[in-house]
Specification:
Layout (H helix, E strand, L loop, with lengths): L1 H10 L1 E2 L2 E2 H9 L2 H14 L2 H38 L2 H10 L8
Antiparallel strand pairs: 1-2
């Protein structure tokens, strides 16, 4: 399918040019060059860098809280294995096909 679209875009004429020809002419126009330059300047400006830093500062407490929650959940989920609690007993029973160990 993609090969067909590429073939059509490069060989089928839409007026004087193919689709690829039209896109190339638009991309190389003075207006598009001005737009690209404006976007590049804005993306690399000091104001944009400050905005990104502000977003990082605002999001940091949320990220840290999520990380602590994740770690607490993992710790709680694995706690039964270490103590031989309900999760550990179920795992041991499964490993021994339900046979209880003799003491």
């Amino acid at each position: 399918m993609a090969v067909f679209v590429v073939w059509c875009g490069t060989t089928v004429k839409l007026g004087e040019h193919t689709c690829l020809g039209h896109v190339t002419r638009i991309w190389d126009s003075e207006e598009t060059r001005d737009l690209r330059k404006g976007i590049r300047d804005k993306a690399t400006s000091e104001g944009t860098k400050e905005l990104v830093d502000d977003i990082k500062e605002e999001a940091e407490p949320v990220v840290e809280r999520a990380k602590r929650g994740w770690e607490a959940g993992v710790k709680e989920a694995t706690k039964g294995d270490a103590k031989g609690g309900a999760a550990g007993e179920a795992k041991a029973e499964k490993e021994t096909d339900g046979a209880k160990p003799t003491e």
